[in-house]
Structure formats: structure tokens, C-alpha cells
Amino acid sequence: SATDPAYLLNIASIGAYQSVPEMAVYAATKAFVRNFTEALHDELRGTALSATCICPGGTHTEFHAQAGAGNYGWLANASMKTAAQVAAESVRAMVKRKRTVIPGLINKLSCWGVRFVPRRIASWVAGRVLGKPRGTLPARSSAA
Questions:
Q1: Confidence at residue 60, expressed as pLDDT on a 0 to 100 scale
Q2: Is 86 in a helix, a strand, or coil?
Q3: Which CATH superfamily is domain 6-130 in?
Q4: Which DSSP symbol is given to 50?
């Protein structure tokens, strides 16, 4: 019925919080998803429908190998979560009708801290941490 709770969960990224050299289109589209979902969440306040945006950092999936990426720096690797961890935190936040959620302490701190540094420096740091990887993982076929 119209009064039953309903949920919308959109997936953005910590890349939504600053520009990321070598990943410009990715970061820009994730910023759109985040801003769209946050505005929608506010518009839906007081209704049965809730919109939540999840902004995970690196997640252990085959995405990185398929994208020709892989060996990022220690900070990016230290902040990685498993897909199961991200999914569990996403669902918990969604049913609590949270606006935005960032899994992981390192990820939360980086998204919070980015607003206190000049954008040029934030972009440089993001490029070093999230941008072009230091090595490449071999692509895996999905048929394996």
C-alpha cells in the first residue's frame, strides 16, 4: 500500500567528494549520484519512500581487474572493504532511512577532511590514492 515503507538505494563512491585525476568521468558521475540522491532524500522527507546514498571506497570485487587497475597505494588498499561488508552496511543504513553512508573509518575521515583543504590539493591527493594504479592486475573472464 501507499503507506508501506519503500526504499531506494543508490551507489556512489568516495570519489564523489572530490575530483580524481585519471578517473574524471567516474568521479563526476558519482558526484551526480550523491547529490541527486541527497536532494531526493530531502524531497521525500515525511513520505513512505526514503532514498539513501552509499559511498563506498575501494571494494574487493573483479571490477579492478576488469578495468585494468589493481595495485593502488597502501592507503587505498588499507581502506578496502569486502562486497559483503559494503552490502550489509548499505542495507542497515537504508532501512534506518539514512541520507548518506560512507563505510569504513578511513573513508569517513577522508571524505570529512577533504572539505578543509584547497580543492587543488584534494584533487592531487585523490589522484595519488585513487587514480592511476601502480601496477595492473590481469583481467579475468566472467566465464571462469
A1: 73
A2: helix
A3: NAD(P)-binding Rossmann-like Domain (3.40.50.720)
A4: E
